[in-house]
Design a protein that fits this description.
210 residues, Endonuclease Iii, domain 2, Endonuclease III, domain 1, 2 domains, 13 helices, globular
Length: 210
């Protein structure tokens, strides 16, 4: 397996953004509007995926509050989740469904160190076998926790809306259409995603998108 340059520094993000701007003039327009793009990297491992499960369908503030309670109770590792009773997990703020998802992740036995050496498709395949982890969550993990340069998350509504605006599309592209569209942005699709998210923030302020 060949993994190209990982996105570990702001300089690598800038390199990818420059490549995209040269290849697609509309990306150059977006980059002018957004300015330098953020790195946005995160740690990998069990806690990163548990945090993603906690955050599903919650506001940032609510997810942060639950995560703080789990962290304070030392319940952010697989062994701790397995030891904890349902009452303790509910007290931290997890719903019945998310307790089931958290336990499924803890029971999965994923070797997170080995995942670092797997190609993107294999990582996504391994992660999506776990109940509660969908393709979007897996793609975000590969993009930000493993720092891979060529991953996209076309099911993300903000990316779809940003692409609609930037490329003057008649409507918000569906996941499949945006995935196909993003093939032209390889090998820097992860940077394209960063750029579109940053551009979404710009148009949200400009157009009053909610």
């Amino acid at each position: 397996m060949t993994i190209h340059k990982l996105i570990l520094t702001d300089e690598v993000v800038a390199q990818g953004a420059a490549w995209l701007a040269q290849r697609e003039p509309r990306f150059a327009v977006a980059l002018t509007a957004t300015g330098p793009l953020p790195l946005r990297n995160r740690a990998d491992g069990f806690a990163a995926l548990l945090s993603a499960i906690v955050s599903q369908q919650l506001s940032v503030a609510s997810a942060a509050a639950i995560w703080k309670r789990l962290n304070n109770a030392d319940m952010i590792e697989a062994a701790a989740i397995m030891r904890a009773g349902d009452d303790a997990l509910r007290a931290a703020g997890l719903s019945r469904q998310k307790i089931r998802y958290a336990r499924a992740l803890a029971e999965s036995g994923i070797d997170f160190v080995r995942l670092r050496q797997c190609d993107d498709a294999e990582v996504i395949s391994v992660l999506t076998e776990v109940s509660g982890i969908g393709v979007w969550t897996a793609e975000i993990y590969v993009m930000f926790s493993l720092s891979r340069p060529d991953v996209f998350a076309p099911g993300d509504l903000a990316l779809q809306e940003a692409a609609r605006s930037l490329f003057d599309l008649p409507g918000r592209p569906k996941e499949r259409a945006l995935r196909e569209m993003a093939e032209a942005w390889s090998p820097w699709r992860s940077v394209a995603a960063r750029l579109l998210w940053a551009y979404y923030a710009v148009i949200k302020n400009r157009e009053g998108i909610t």
